[in-house]
UniProtKB/TrEMBL annotation:
Alphabetical UniProt keywords: Hydrolase
InterPro entries named in the record: His_Pase_superF_clade-1, His_PPase_superfam, Nudix_hydrolase, NUDIX_hydrolase-like_dom_sf, NUDIX_hydrolase_CS, NUDIX_hydrolase_dom, Nudix_hydrolase_domain
GO MF annotations in UniProt: bis(5'-nucleosyl)-tetraphosphatase (asymmetrical) activity
GO BP term, example: AMP biosynthetic process
Superkingdom in the source lineage: Bacteria
Protein name: Phosphohydrolase (MutT/NUDIX family protein)
A Pfam family of this chain: His_Phos_1
Organism listed in the record: Bifidobacterium dentium (strain ATCC 27534 / DSM 20436 / JCM 1195 / Bd1)
Length: 358
């Protein structure tokens, strides 16, 4: 029976040490794509078993998502704590081609390795400390697995990388940078976890809590949200939204900001005010360069999607912001990567974030 080995990894990039952008990251938003590429260094690892240079990556553990595996494996192989950025693509090749320079076989009848890749940026040691309880431990890879890492320019990476598939992912990275992804900021929209039904709940709608099953989904979602290093947490003040982010707030020691305009009642009465409050969160995310997670209700999310579709750089992205109820499943999130342009905020990547509950 054919076997598919699932794996995940990414291209970790940083601004050249000692360079102008490294000293003042805000400058990056004023640079051209070519200037940004010239100022970027990427991390490549050496595997002694295959004597090759490749992107940090590894196999999924049991009960692990590709997203979580990408962050964990990058941390294990490079020693760098990271936050995921825009998605790059996937690679699949026969396991028999592991370690070979060319991996362009299209034979999918044999055992294969399937790897998903993201852009990734280093985070501070302080941020990494905040994420330990939510994300879980990361242990350095054995020297027999990875015995060297180098930070090189994009041009040098093309020369050093051993495998054709890794060069294909580098090309996707360059395309993303030219799109503005190197300076994109992440805003996570979270739909609250499953709540007690309106019919059975005897209290007010504002105080309606999540169910035990919803609590399990919310707890599992923390592992996924932690992959993006959310340093700002915002929520509707209603109970079910607060409870969805409550454990993440406790695990990361990040306070929750309450946004009154994003309750169901406030949105129903003043939808424009709700949108302006949400737009203010987008602007804060872009201005502070901090990842924000916002927990909201089903109808509010639908109203925000109506506005956000017009911000998408491509029609394909806009279609991911579903135009009909329920918009998103309960206890899930979407990660939107946004760049600032003279015409206003522009969404260049959207990722669905679904927890694995087991």
């Amino acid at each position: 029976m054919r076997r598919i080995v699932e794996a995940a990894g990414g291209i970790v990039y940083r601004w050249k040490v000692g360079g102008q952008i490294a000293d003042n990251p805000q400058i990056a938003t004023r640079k051209t794509a070519k200037e940004l590429l010239d100022d970027i260094e990427v991390c490549i690892v050496h595997r002694p078993k295959y004597d090759d240079w490749s992107w940090p990556k590894g196999k999924l553990e049991q009960g692990e998502s590709h997203r979580h595996a990408a962050v964990r494996e990058i941390g294990e192989e490079t020693g760098v704590s990271i936050a995921l950025g825009p998605y790059l693509g996937e690679v699949e090749y026969p396991l028999s081609e592991e370690g070979k320079k060319t991996r362009h076989s299209h034979d999918r009848t044999v055992d294969t390795k399937h790897t998903l890749y993201w852009m990734a940026r280093p985070i501070t040691g302080e941020d990494a400390e905040h994420l330990i309880d939510a994300f879980g431990p990361v242990h350095r890879a054995d020297v027999g697995e990875i015995n060297d890492i180098v930070w090189v320019s994009v041009r040098e990476a093309r020369k050093i990388l051993t495998h054709s598939t890794d060069k294909d992912i580098l090309a996707a990275f360059v395309d993303r940078v030219q799109e503005g992804a190197a300076t994109a900021q992440n805003l996570l929209i979270v739909r609250h976890a499953k709540a007690e039904s309106r019919k059975s709940w005897k209290g007010t709608d504002a105080n309606r809590p999540i169910t035990p099953k919803g609590a399990a989904a919310a707890f599992a979602l923390n592992r996924e949200l932690a992959c993006y290093n959310p340093t700002r947490l915002a929520t509707s003040p209603w109970m079910r939204c607060q409870e969805t982010l409550q454990v993440l707030s406790w695990q990361t020691d990040r306070p929750m900001e309450h946004i009154d305009a994003l309750t169901e009642d406030a949105f129903a009465d003043h939808p424009t005010m709700a949108w302006l409050a949400f737009l203010d969160q987008i602007r804060q995310t872009l201005n502070t360069r901090q990842t924000t997670a916002i927990c909201m209700h089903r109808p509010v999310i639908g109203g925000m999607f109506d506005h956000l579709r017009g911000m998408c750089s491509r029609k394909q992205l806009a279609k991911q912001l579903i135009a009909k109820s329920p918009y998103m499943p309960t206890g899930t999130a979407i990660a939107m990567f946004i760049i600032d342009t003279p015409q206003g905020p522009n969404i260049i990547d959207i990722q669905k974030v679904t927890p694995l509950v087991y």
